[in-house]
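Researcher: Please translate sequence to structure tokens.
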Amino acid sequence: MSDIPSGANYACGRHRAFAYERGGTKLVGELTPLVRVNWRRIRDDISTAQATLGTTECCDLLGSLDTIRMELHITRDDEKVWQGPITRLEYQRDVVDVFADDILWIAKRTPLAVGYNMGYPNVGYVVDRMDWLMRSQTFAKYGNPWRAVLHPIRIPQGGDARSSRATFAWSVTTWEDFDKFAEDMGADYTVVNRDIYYWDLNYAWSVLPDLTEDHLSETPRIVEYGSEFATEFVVTNNQGYAGVAYAAQSIIDDYGYIGMVDSAWNEAAAAEPGTSNVPTPEELAEMQYNAGRQLSSRTLPPVSIVVPEGTSLMPSSPWRVSDLIPGSWFNVRLENLCRKVHEAQRLHEVNVTEEAGTGEKFGVTVVTAPLVRINP
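Model: Translation complete:
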């Protein structure tokens, strides 16, 4: 995605809203008049959208809408930018509000019917387990009537994060388990229309052109986060055993021993009746590997460029709307403050609103990228 043309207009886009039957192939009708529309794309969460319609044109159509069995589709300048099931309808005298969640909402309402244990010798890759949750336990399980398109993105030659996670049957939904891998175990995910992407968070599989402060409506600031720094990282099974990683001695000499503890390792297996609390040598090695992986991004106090949340992109931005996939990497250059920083960041959220009479607001939220970067 490096050859993205400049000149995208982030102030004058025009939106339309449509209702489709489940699966997104059969049009129910266009929803008009569109008074206000808002749609989001977000990393590591379920995105939402809302369309507010006046009741002067197609009241019969608005009255015939159904939640869940129908979807909201939104286009911007005739390009589809958001799709997902309608989850709430609100009728007032003058307007109707249509609320929708993206396609991952289905996983949020799908109980995980089988358990698993990735403890040794079944230690596996995080992205593979996430794919299993979405593919065989959520969408393909019932014939995929929602037509979700899955995109597991794997690092070549087995470089993805590994996990020893265990989960009992009927204890979570498939999305809760899927999200846990992103929250604690080194993965990211996002949804664009019907496409679900998930990948190792260190893998820069999607890269946008560099950004400067001239491309943003608000001036970024530079922040150093001492609380994110560690020279000692512990991954424990909560039963008295752990893998421990240390920074280089030269860093410890400068900063001392600053520790952090991750206690989420293999939590379900540790609680299973009859399961030994003593890890095998292989399990200890896995804990040690995960401790080192966690420490690798914390061995110096992170210095970050902070872009104010919801900052609007200027028309000079080199990014095209269709390529704004949360989780994408890009470089930011900030040279006009006392401290000059060039930093890799990731797109976290896209939030777009158009309202009748006021035009379009196109905001983005970004976060610092991991120190460890794996390029395709």
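Researcher: Any highlights?
Model: Residues 281-295 form the longest helix (15 residues).
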